[in-house]
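Re: the 293-residue chain
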Amino acid sequence: MRILVTGREGQVARSLAERAAADADIELVSIGRPQLDLLQPETIRPAILAAQPDVVVSAAAHTAVDQAEDEPERAFAINAAGAGAVASAAAEAGAAIIHLSTDYVFSGELEGERVETDATDPQSVYGRSKLDGEEAVAAANPRHVILRTAWVYSPFGKNFAKTMLALARQHDRIRIVADQWGNPTAAADVAEGVLRIARTIIADRQPETYGIFHLAGEGDTNWAGFARQILATSASLGGPSAEVEDITTADYPTKARRPRNSRLSCEKLLEVHGWRPPAWQDSCRTVVERLIG
């Protein structure tokens, strides 16, 4: 199976490359700028057609949530128009597409877990651009899987886990928002899910294998609870730790509005593709072990 991943340096792209390297049945190619640049549409089609993939993983995106508020045109060009162009080129190449999306397509105001059929209502430029991207991908390639995930962290790039450990090396006490809830999701688990789905859609082209799915860590917490888990795990391994003080969203204003409730149900993923991400606490330990190792 030949898989093309858009982007090289993102958390999921790097996790996919690492995971695929251990599987002899997978040939994975990552293409990023300048060969494939979502802001340069003329680069997208040639790069994808030349790769001759069976599956394209659309992982490249504008993910700077607050920055998107200041540069909406760039966010929409990458997350909406760029994603649609990738899906269109994949269709022309005869490839299915797995497109990564986000919990930010929801308002975050409802209680409980969001399912794939719930109404979307993004409250930020980032969320609106990603929702437009979902719609562009679905319109351009009927063989699409749109994966909404949330709170992604890993040993790579910038993310919450790395930030907490860095802060704990400098401070005895850290103030963290405790009124936003969601599912911490290790990028390695997203990568595992992507590869499992890729196998399914290559082996079984039934309509139900396509569509929108949620893929997020099993179980939920708030940001402060996530921080405590990271730091407690670090302390147990001899790494840095600090006390966590709960604060509210109002105490930590940001340009972009964050969803208050980002809980995602992954039942559809389990029913259709036969896999559920592991408990977020287990994946958290794996990542922290690597970060302080």
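The domain at 2-158+184-218+263-278 is CATH 3.40.50.720 (Rossmann fold).
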